[in-house]
Amino acid sequence: ADAAPALDHDAIIIGAGMSGLYQLHRLRGLGLRVRVFEAGSGVGGTWYWNRYPGARFDSESYSYGYSFSQELLEEWSWSEHFAPQPETLRYLNHVADKFDLRRDIRFGSRVAAAHWREDFRGWDVALEDGSRHTARFLITAVGPLSAPTLPRIEGVETFRGEAFHTYHWPHHPVSFAGKRVAVIGTGATGVQTIQEVAKTAAHLTVFQRTPNWCAPLHNRPITEEEQRRIKAGYPGIFARCRESFACFLHTPDPRGAFEVTPEEREAFFEELYASPGFGIWQGNFRDVLTDREANAAITEFVARKIRQRVKDPAVAEKLIPKNHGFGTRRVPLETRYYEVYNQPNVRLVDLRETPIERITPQGIRTTDAEHEFDMIVYATGFDAITGSFDRIDIRGAGGQRLKDRWAGGPQTFMGVLVEGFPNMLMLMGPHTALGNIPRSIEYNVDWVTGLLRHMWERGLTRVDARPEAVAAWTDHVKAVGSGLLSNEVDSWFTGVNTNVEGKQTRIVARYSGSAPAYRAWCDEVAAKGYRELELA
Ligand code: NA7
C-alpha cells in the first residue's frame, strides 16, 4: 500500500442534489477531502432540472426539507404547504451557501465512467471532458429519477416546433400563450404540467396511454400563525415522519376498510379526498393497498369523483383507469386537473384507441389523424432507479460491469453496497426505502457516514458486502414486497419502462417494506460492528 499513488480525494460524490449536498456536509465533518461532480450548472438535482410549469412538492414542505440543522429550520420559511419548484431550488441554494458547500463541487461535470482499481484501493473516475480523478470511496448520489426517457417513436427528432422533456426544461421562460401544445404522458409530472399549460395555451392536446388515479392536493399558502406552529413543532413533525410507513406525515388508519359501516367508510373517503396531500394514499384504511376488496372500495369512490368532475361522460371514462386500482401506482396530486377537460381549448387523445404512429415535422400522427402543434412536451418519465447507474460505465473488482451484474434485477446490501464493487456506497440506490425521499436520504447519508467514520478511525481502507449478506437482503426485499398490489402493476415502481431496451418486465426495484423496519435492519448492522461487511 505504501507504493500506491496519492489519491486525489478521499471520496468522490456523484451528484449535488439533496443527497450529495448533505453527504458532502457530513463527510467534511469527518475531515475527509471530498469532491462532488455535478452535471448541472448549479446545485439541487431533481429541483435543478425539473423546471417545468407546475412542478411542486406532493409532500408537505415542512416534512420535506432537511432536518439536520436547527438553525436552518428556524431561518427558512416555506411559503406554501406544498412549495413550488423555484422555491425548493432557492432553498437548496441557500443550504449550499449556508454550509459553504460550493467550493468542493465541480459543476458542468458529468461522470462517464468509474472503475475500481485494486492496485491503489480506490476508484478511477472519468468525466465526459476526459479528465480523470481518483478517490478511496465513490458515493453515488445520482437520484432514482434522473435518467429521463423520450418515447421510442419514429420521427421524434424531426419535429420543427419547440420540444421539451419536462426534466430538461429550459432555464428561460417558456410561453404557451397563443400556441397549440401537445403533452405526452399523464404521470405525476404530466398532471402537474397539463393543469398549468391549459391556463394559457390556445389549444392543448393531451396524449394519454394509461390514465392514473389522481387526488386533490389542496395546496394553500402557509399563514403566519401556521408558520409559528410549524417552526415550534419541527421535532414532532420529524418524529411523525420517522414513525410512518414511508416517512410521510400520513400513517395508515388502523381499521380495515370493511371493519366499519358503509356510511363510515364513505365518510372517511370523503374526508381524505377533502384533505391535503397524500393522506388518501398513505393514510387510508390499513388494507387498501394490499386487499383487493378494500382496494376496490376506494377505487370505486375515486372513479365516482372523476365522473362528477368531468362533464363529458365519454371523456370521464377515458380518464378512469381500468387495469389497476387506486394507489397501486404513484398517485399524482392535482389542482383542478380533471376540470381542465371541461375547457373548450383542451382535448384528450386516448392512445389505447388511436396510438401514435410517428412524430412529424408538423406534429403528431395517430392512427386516425394528423395533429399540428407549435410545441410538444414530453412528460414521459424516467428510466427509474437503476437507469441513472446504467448510464455510467461502473466497473467493480475484476472489471465486472454493474449493469451486467444487475441485468436480472438489482442485488444490493441494504441498497447501499454491491458485492464486488468495493468502496462504492449508494445513496437512494435500488432496494432502499424511498417514500418521502429527503427523510430517507438523511438516514442513508448518516448510515454511510457512520460506516466511513468506523473505517477512518480504524485505518480501514476497503469495504465490500459479503455475498451471503447480499443474498439475504435481496431475498428480504422480495419477501417484504409480496402482497403489495403495486407489485402487480407496470410502473416505475416495478422498473418497467417501455422506452428502454430490456425494461419491459417487472422487477423488484424498491424496498417496499416500512421505513422503520428498514432503519431497524441498518441500525442493527452498525450496532453489531458491520459483520455483514468485509472490512480491511
Ligand atoms: P411516470 O410516472 O413514469 O409517467 C410517464 C408517463 O408517460 C406515463 O403516463 C406513461 O404512460 C407516459 N409514456 C411514457 N412513454 C410513452 C410513450 N412512448 N407513449 C405514450 N405515453 C408514454 O413519470 P413522471 O415523470 O410523471 O413521474 C415520475 C416520478 O417523479 C413521480 O412518480 C414522482 O415521484 C416524481 P404509461 O403509464 O407508461 O402507459
Automatic annotation (TrEMBL):
The keyword Transferase does not apply. Gene3D superfamilies: FAD/NAD(P)-binding domain. InterPro entries: FAD-binding_Monooxygenases (IPR050775), FAD/NAD-bd_sf (IPR036188), Flavin_mOase-like (IPR020946). It holds the Pfam family FMO-like. Transmembrane segments: none annotated. The keyword Oxidoreductase applies. Keywords: FAD, Flavoprotein, NADP, Oxidoreductase. This is NAD(P)/FAD-dependent oxidoreductase. It comes from Craurococcus roseus. The lineage of its organism: Bacteria, Pseudomonadati, Pseudomonadota, Alphaproteobacteria, Acetobacterales.
